DNA sequence: CCGTGTGAAGCTGTTCACAGCT
DNA sequence: AGCTGTGAACAGCTTCACACGG
């Protein structure tokens, strides 16, 4: 792989990595449309991005474009897949078979493009054994460590209530997962060696609520 | 309400608003524990935040603390609820009764703390009429405009596939919603007057995948 | 004396603008 | 001639550090 090595990976911002995912979506759509080549300006116009930022983000990882021409769509798509590590299978385990856990385990985004859900766990004996339509059967949370090791799980997803999230996180880390995606609305801490990303779905609703409260004041002005 | 008025709301960053939600969670937990008063330093230590940032974020909206003492937990919690507009009922409509739409409509976070889901729609006639356990029955997507008006919907949530998301967004805006939360992995555009927030759940998995790919290189070094 | 509220400093992320390659 | 790749300027966000009030 022809990645630049003189810029350390740790120095690249999460914002840049998130944008690489966005660029990947855009390129996949262009490829469907049969577009062979695209300039950063065309990409920016089409998908409401900034052309300089696209070039800068890509330049962290290599020189993928051709001056005077632009980028080869299929090639750049492959590069992004390599950079994001989506060429390897990532085995995912979901802790918490509540509404969100079940939805994610059936969600196509979590079962395509390199990701595969290999287990869904719950501590509630009433849920254990139930088959999730279009997905797996729920397994007992007590088997977490064994399952992580046997199925060589890479990523743990936490969809338990806030009060149980820290314990789930600790167990996942002890069992040996390499990264954790947390949906519980709580601040987890304790394991700097395992990458943790937290997502609080309600925060986004509250953000919109804030704008609703303050938009009416603006509207009353103009 | 004793908000500062000399700083315009538009100048406050989304990052600050998101942190207000986090502070609210923290205060709710402290209140459960019976803590009456808290300093920014104690809050920061307890929940892994930065004390100066807490003070600065709060100072945009007023002077809520007492010098030499700290903040009254219950009072500050009320202030945050007011600032975020969570004292008013926000009526939410979900477009798309797939896995994610159904999960969100049952998700407690979307039915508490000021939010109430008043309708779940889908274009698929096979889904229409089905009752979501612990939630509402699915209604036809064709009734969107009527339902938005009759039930005075504030916020539309898009959980349809990427290809249908722009249409759903346009219909929601035309029907008169004031804000939209989009879960479809696509770049929406066209209505600057309606606040739009997009969340792509898969981007977070891809971010973790990136770190997995690059962590092994770090591990091989040290 | 202690902790808030806040200018100022420092840092990170974005955008500009152009040299250099094709 | 046109577009990439990139240093430099700019903008925005975070952290510092201290004057001020309780």
List keywords for this structure.
8 strands, 15% strand, two-stranded antiparallel sheet, DNA-binding, alpha/beta, globular, Arc Repressor Mutant, subunit A, 6-stranded parallel sheet, 222 residues, 8 helices, homodimer, Rossmann fold, 2 domains
Would you kindly provide a written description of the structure presented here, covering whatever features stand out?
The structure is a homodimer of 222-residue chains. By secondary structure, chain A is an alpha/beta fold. Chain A folds into two domains: 9-83, Arc Repressor Mutant, subunit A (Orthogonal Bundle), CATH 1.10.10; 90-192, 3-Layer(aba) Sandwich (Rossmann fold), CATH 3.40.50.720. Chain A is 44% helix and 15% strand. The first copy, chain A, has helices at 14-32, 40-47, 51-59, 73-83, 99-106, 144-150, 162-175, 201-221; strands at residues 37-38, 71-72, 90-95, 115-122, 138-140, 155-158, 179-182, 195-198. In chain A, the strands form two sheets. Chain A has a six-stranded parallel β-sheet with strand order 5-4-3-6-7-8, with helices on both faces. In chain A, strands 1-2 form a two-stranded antiparallel ribbon. In chain A, helix 2 (40-47) packs across helix 3 (51-59). Chain A is globular. The interface between A and B is large, with 64 and 64 residues. Chain A binds a DNA duplex (22 and 22 nucleotides) through residues 13, 15-16, 39-41, 50-53, 55-56, 58-59, 63-71.
């Amino acid at each position: 792989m022809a990645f630049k090595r003189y810029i350390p990976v740790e120095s690249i911002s999460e914002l840049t990595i998130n944008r690489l995912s966005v660029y990947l979506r855009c390129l996949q759509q262009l490829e469907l449309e049969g577009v062979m080549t695209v300039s950063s300006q065309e990409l920016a116009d089409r998908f409401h991005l900034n052309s300089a930022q696209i070039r800068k983000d890509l330049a962290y990882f290599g020189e993928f474009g051709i001056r005077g021409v632009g980028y080869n769509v299929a090639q750049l798509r492959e590069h992004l897949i390599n950079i994001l590590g989506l060429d390897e299978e990532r085995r995912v385990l979901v802790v918490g078979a509540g509404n969100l856990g079940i939805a994610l385990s059936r969600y196509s985004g979590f079962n395509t493009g390199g990701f595969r859900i290999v287990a869904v766990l719950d501590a509630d004996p009433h849920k254990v054994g139930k088959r999730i339509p279009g997905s797996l059967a729920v397994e007992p949370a007590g088997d977490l460590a064994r399952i992580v090791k046997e199925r060589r799980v890479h990523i743990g997803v936490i969809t338990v209530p806030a009060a149980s999230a820290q314990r789930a996180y600790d167990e996942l880390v002890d069992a040996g997962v390499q990264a954790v995606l947390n949906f519980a609305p709580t601040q987890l801490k304790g394991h700097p060696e395992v990458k943790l990303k937290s997502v609080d779905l309600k925060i986004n609703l509250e953000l919109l609520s804030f704008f609703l409260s303050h938009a009416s004041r603006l509207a009353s002005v103009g």
